[in-house]
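S1.2 Input.
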Amino acid sequence: QVQLVESGGGSVHTGGSLALSCAASGYTYSIYCMGWFRQAPGKEREGVASIFTRGGSTYYADSVKGRFTISQDNAKNTLYLQMNNLKPEDAAMYYCAADRSRCGTLHRANFSYWGQGTQVTVSS
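S1.3 Output.
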């Protein structure tokens, strides 16, 4: 099993920045793909970014390209999401996710392990 715990959420104004972290524990050696998802009230959970843990290749949703950066520190078993130039539409609960398979489509069905989420609020 793999456990994921997010931190770093908060409230910012439009144009502000936040950095999210996700600490992984358990059988982390079995993880090949990690990602960030978000879900706003009344909306589907959508993929934000993913990273192949062995090689570092990344993928971003079009809505966050150029503003968000996903990264990892394998020594600390920690995943990060740096979010810059935040917009009101970025407000959501952000979830860390992981899977034992290589990164495929950034869809929730492709991830087996999930954290509890951390809230991001962006005010205009």
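S1.4 Remarks. The radius of gyration is 13 Å.
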